[in-house]
Design brief:
Largest sheet: 5 strands, mixed
Strand order of the largest sheet: 2-9-8-4-5
Amino acid sequence: MASKVTPWYKKKRVSQVKTDYAYDHTKCVCAKQQTAVRTSSSKSVSQVQAQATVAMAEPAYTIPAFRQRTADEGTEEYQRVSTKVGKGLTVIQEELHRMRVATKAQVDSIAIQREVRNMMYKKTDVLDDIPKLPDFLVALRPHTVWEKTPVKLFCTVQGNPRPIVKWYKGGVPVDPLTAPGKYKIENKYGVHSLIISRCAVSDTAEYSAVATNLHGTATSKATVTVKRASGSGESCQLGLVPHLTEIHPSKLEVSMLDRFFVSFGVEGGSISLVCTLVVVPDLPNLPPLAQWYRDDKLLKPSKLAEMSVGGGAARLTLPHLAKDDEGLYTLRIFTKDGTTEHSAYLFVSDADPSAPGAPGAPLSVKAYDINADYVLVAWKPPNTVNEVAITGYFVDRCESGSDTWVQCNDAPVKVCKYPVHGLKVGHSYHFRVRAVNSAGISRPSRKSDKVTALDAAESERLQVIKIEGKYDIVIKDDDLEGYVTIPGEPTDVHASEIFKSYVVLSWKPPSPRGRAPLWYVIEKCLAGTGAWQRINTAVKLHSPRYPVFDLQDGQKYQFRVYSVNLYGSSEASEPSEPIQKVDEDGVPSAPGQVVATRNTKSSVFVQWDAPKHLKKLMGYYIDGRIAGSKEWFPCNHKPFKHTRFVVHGLIPGESYTFRVQAVNVYGLSEESQESSSITVEPALATPSAPFGITLLSCDGSSMTLAWKSPKHCGGSKVNAYYIDKRNADSLVWKEVNLAAVTERICTVDNLTEGTFYEFKVQAANMAGVGVPSAPSAPMKCEAWTMEEPGPAYDLSFSEVRGQSLVLLWKAPVYTGASAVTGYLVDMAKKGSSEFVTLTQEAVNRRYLQVTGLKEGETYVFRVRSVNAAGVGKPSQLSEPICAKALPGTQEIVAGVDEETGDVFLSFEACEICEMSKFVWSKNYKAIGECPRVATTDKGRTSRLTFSSPNKDDLGSYSVVVTDTDGVSASHTLTEDALNTMLELSYAIRHPIIPLKHGLNYEVLEKGHVRFWLQAVKLSSSVSYRFIVNDKEVTSGEGIKISHDVATGVIQMTVDHFTRANEGTYTVQIHDGKAKAQSSLVLVGDVFKAALKEAEFQRKEHIRKQGPHFSEYLYFTVTEDCTVMLACKVANVKKETSFHWYKEDDEIVPETPPNVMSGACSLPIPLFSRKDHGIYKAVLSDDRGKDTSVFDISGQVFDDIINALAKNAGASASELVLQCTPEGIRLQCYMNYYTEEMKTIWKHKESKIASSEKMRIGGTAEMAWMQICDPSDKEKGNYSIEISDGVQTHTRSFDLSGQAYTDAYEEYLRLKAAAFAEKNRGRVVGGLPDVVTIMEAKSLSLTCTVWGEPTPEVTWFKNEQEVASTEHTKVTFEGGKFASLVITKVTPEDSGKYSINVRNKYGGEFVEITVSVYKQGEQIPEPKLGHPKTPAATPASTPVPPKSPAPPSKTPTPVPPKAQTPASMRSQASTPASTPIPKSPTPVPKSPTPTPKSPTPSRSAKSPTPPRFMKSPTPPRK
C-alpha cells in the first residue's frame, strides 16, 4: 500500500524568515521531519496490512497437536484476532477517505489553475499593446548572514516591454566572470536572483537591481551584512562607511521629528546637535541605536564628543569646539525597516585673536612616522582672509599627563610639517601648533592625539608560530640570530623628507642587530669628497630617522650610518645617493573659474575648477563678501576637499561675491578670480502642490472652490492655477480651465446636480506647472439653501511674534438669507479638538489680533460667519502656526526726515527676494494709490511718507513682504505721536542752528582772549556777526574774526584785552533758513578773573622769550635712595648759566649742570632733616632770567621721606641677628635708612620704645634694635614696620627656642671676650718701627705697657730672649714702663728686636728693626727682610683700642669690611699662652668703636674671638 500523505489543508505553514540561511536551514529540518513521519507512517501501515491479511486468510493445513487449543482457548484467540482485524480495517478506511479528499482537492486546484492561466493569457494579449514603466512587484529585501554561508537576493519586476535587469554592488556592476564561482545570476519565471556563494566580510555592501526598458528605469536596493562568528576575528566594522553600517536587529520603529539645522559655533565654545525622535515601542531600557558621523567618519564617545540617546531625542554635544570639528554631521538611526538619517553642516569660526591681526589657529594636527625618539608632525594651515600672510609655525610638545608645553623649534618652520626628535623612549606626547605672522602669534591648535615614542622596528622583529592550530608562540629575531655582539650595518640610507629648511634621513635597522641596546651614528660629507664628518655628536639616536637642518644651499651631500652598541660599532652603511635641499615646491596654482548659483533663501551653491597644478592639494578655502564691500569673510574654516560647496548663513536678498584658494603643506594659493555677484534666493523650480481645497458655494449647476497657496513657490511667483475635475465614481480627470486662473478661487460650471465631484489643482510659475494637489474629498453638487452664511476662507497670518499674531480672512461667498454681520474666531492648540472662542461677540472686521499666546507653542484657528439667521459653517482649519518671530524681525519705525521734515513710517525686512513687494495697509486694507501717502522702496527697506499728515491719518498701519516666510509688521499711529512728529517736522522745515557750545571765552598764550562758539553743523554759505555792547565788531587791528565749516566753530580773537573790553558779547548766525544767536556777559568778578588771567599769560609769554623753566623744580627718588631735585629748561643756549642755591647760599654740585640737555638735577644723598630749607634754581643769560623755588619743609619734606621709605621698605632684608658684648641686636639692611622714616619696632605685637634696655638706632644702610643684657623676658617674635604713608613693609624674626639659646650663649661669649680684650697686656706706645744708629752710640728702646693684672715683659733679639747684662740692660719700672738699653752699640747689635707683653688675658708682640753703621758711612737702608713699612694688619685681628679707656655705651655696628694695608701697622698678636703666629689671617673691624690713644699704635691684638655671630637667618647679600 502507498505511504501516508499529509493533506494540503493540514500542512503547517512555515513562517518566512529574514535570511536565506535560516530559510534553507528550516526547510532542511522540515524535510527531515517529514521524511521521518513518512517512514513511521509507512511502517505502521505495512504492519496493519500484514495483520489484516493473516486475519482474513483461511487455514491451508491441519493444526499440529502441540498447537491444538481447547474451546475456551479458541474463543479467546478468535476474539483477539477479530479485535485486531477490526482496528486495522478502521485505519485503512480512514486513510482511504483522506486520500479521496486530497485527490479531489488537487483536481479542483489544477482546474482552477488552468482556468486562471487561460484568463492570464487573454489579459496578457490585451495588455501587451500598453507601454508600461518597469515596476518591482517584489522588491529586494536586506539580509544578514554568517560568514562562509550563501545568500540569495531575488526580486520580481514587470513592465512592457519586458525590462532588462542588471545587478550592482555599491554602485559597481556585478560581473560573475571576475570571480568565477562567486556570483550566479538567474532569471526564471520572471524572478531575477543574485546568488553569492560562501559570503565573506568584504561582501557586506548595498546591492541594487536596476530594471530598464524603453520607457524608463526602476531600482530596488537592499543591504547585505556579513557577520563573523565570535572567536574568528574582529566582527565587520561597518561604521567606517556610513552607507555600509550594520542593521540593528531590534523591532523598534523610529521616526525623526525636529531635526538639527546648519549650525554655527566659535572656537572654545560648545554646541549641541539635537534630533527629536518618536520610538514605538518606547522602552526606557532599550533606546534605539544611533550613530554620529563627521564627514563620513564614525564618531566615538569621548571628552570632545558626548553622545546620548533617550528621552525622545538623540543628542551630540561638542563641549570644546575647535575648527577640527567643522564638517558635515550625520545622525543615523537604526529602525525596524533599516536606517533613517539626517545630515547638516557645522561651521566653527576662529576665536578672537591673541593679538590684533594675528592669524587663526592651525588645525588637524597629527603625528606620523612614530619612532623611539622621532615623530613627524603635520597640520593644515588656517584660512587668512584679512590678516597678514603667515610667515611660519611653532610646534610645541607636552608629555601626557602634564600641562607644561615645550617649544620644539627655535625659528618658525614655513611648511606644515616638522620632524620632532629628542623624544624619550616609551614616553607619550601630545603636540600642538601655533601660526606666526608680523602681527603676532595665533592661539594654539587643538592638541593631537596621544602618541607613544616606541621603536616601530621592534614589532617587526617578532614572529608568531602556530602549534597545532591552537597555540601561538612568539619568537624574537634575537633568538634566531644566535649570540651577536657587534651589530650589522644599516641599509637603504635615503632622504624620506626633503624641504628647503630640513632633510629627514631614513634607513633600515641592521640585521643581525644583537640583543644589546642599539644606537646610531651619522656622518656626512660633500658628495664626491670623502671627507666624512659626524653630525650627531651630542645626540644618541635610537630611531632610524634623523632630521638634518644645517645643510648649505646648492650643495650635494652624502650620508652614511653606523650601528653602535656596548660591544662596538658596525661597519659604515653604503653612502646614500647625493642629497640636496630643494626649493619649496610651492603652493598650488589658483583655482579656476568660480560659479555661484542659487540654492536656498539663506545659502548659495559655489563650484569652481580645480587648479592646473595641484601639488598635493589638501583642500580649498572659500571667501565671500557683500557686493560693494571691501571686507572679505571666510565661508569655511577647515579645508574642503571637493570643488563644490554650499555657503550657509547668508542674508536673504543680499548680493554676494565669492573667491576660492587652494591649500597644501606650503600654505594658501593665490586667490581665484571673483565670481559674478549673486543674490541669495531659492533655486528656481516649479511650485509645490496647492492644498486645502474647500467648497464656498453651490447653486446646483456650479460650485465655487477655494484653495491655499503652495508651501513652496519654487523661487518664482505663482502666476497661474489649473483645476481638474472628475466624477467621484470615475477615474478619468477632465480639465476645468484652459486659461490660467490667477486667483485662488474659481467657479466650476456645467455640473450635474446631485453628482459627487472631486477636484485637484496645479500651480504654475515661470519654471512650469507643478505637481497636482491631492484630490479633494468628494463634494455633492447640491444647491445651498440654508439661511446661515457659508464658510469664510483664505485664513492667513501676519505679524507673528512670541506672544501675539494677527489673523486675517476673507468674507464668505455664500451669505445666506441676509448679509454677514460679524465673525467668531476659534483657537485650539495643534493636535487638540478643544476650541476656545476668542471673541465674546462677533467682530465686524476681517482681521483679529490674537494675544496671550505662549511662545513656541503651535496653534490652529477657524472662523465662523454670523448673520441675522445665526452662525454659519466654520471655515477650514488654518495651517498650524508657531508663536515665534522670524530671526532678525524688526518693527515699523515712525520718524521725521531730517532733510525735508516729512513724517514717515519705515520698515526694514529681515529677508527679501527678487519678487518680493512691500504691501502697505491701513486697518488691514491695502492702501494702493492714495494722494495722502507715497511709498518708496530701496533694497530691504520700504518707507510710507505722509504728504499732509493730520488726524485723518491716525490708525493702524501694517506692511507685508510678499514671497517670504511671513515677514510683516504693524504700527499704530496715535495722536500724541503724530503731534510730536509734526513739531519736529516744523523745526526741520523752519530750522534753528543747533549749537554744541554757546558763546564762551578762553585766554590764549600771549594774553589774547578768544571768544568762540561751536555749531553742530555749518554750511559754506554761513554768515554771522559779533556785537559787543550793542555795537557790531569787525576784523581789524587787534581783532580777528574767522570760522571753520568742518568743525562748526566761529571765533573772535582780541589781542589787547583791557578794562575797556568789559561788557556783553553776542553772535548772530544765519545759515540758509536756519538762525541762531548766543550771548556772553563778561562783567564784574567774571571779567576781573579773565583780565587777571590775560595779564598773567602776557607775562608768561614775555618770560618765555628768554631762558625759562618749562617745568619747575620737583623731586624724585632714585633706586639708591638719592633725592634728586630736577627741573626742565627751554629756550637756552651755551652761554646760559644755571646756579643752585639753598637759603641763598650757592650750591656747587660735583657735576656741573648741562642746560643744553634740557634738564638739570641736584642730587641730595643721605637725605635727612638737615636738608630742610628753601632751594632755588636760577637760569639766566643776556636775554633774561628765570627762577624756580622749591621749599623742602612741611608736607614736601614728609612726601620725600615717604618716597624714601617706599624704596627702602621694598629693598629691606629680613631681620638679621647680630650679637654684641652689650646684648643681642636685630638688624634690617635696606637701601637707605634715616631716623625720620616712620619705623616701628614691635615685640609680640607691642610697640617698643627706645630705652636703656631696648636701644633703637641705625646707620645709612640699616636700622637696628639692641636688647641690652637680655633675659628670658625678651624672648618672642620681633618685627619692624616701615611705613611710606600708603603701604607698610614688615620684616620679622622669631627670637625664641634654639635661636634665642644660641644668641644668648654667643652674647655671653662675646661679653667675656670683650672683658679679656679690655684687660689684656699691650704696648700702648713709644717704640719706633726702624732704628738706625751709629756705632759706639747707646740705644734706648723704651715703651709704655698696660694690662690688668700687670703684664709680664720679655725682650727678644732675632727671636732669642735678651738677658739683662752690662751691655744690654733690661728694665721694667712700676709695671708701666719697659726699656731695653744697649750701651756702645756695635754692628753685631744690628737685628730684629721685639717685645712681648702679656698677662692671663692675652698679650701683644711688637717688633723693631735696628741697624748699626760705622762713622762716616752712609746711613744704610733697612736690611733685606726688614720692611720699611709695616705689613698689613691680619684681617682676622680686630683693631686694638688706642687707650685703656672702656668702650662707648652705644656702639654702632657696621658691616664687616676688609682694611687696607695703608691704614694699618705691622702687627702681630699672641695670646698669653701661645707662641707668636707667623701668618695671621684677616678679619673685619670690630663693631665696637676704639678709644683714642696718645700715640699711633703699631701693635696687633691677640687672637680673641670676634664680637659677632652669624644669625640663623642668612644675612643680606
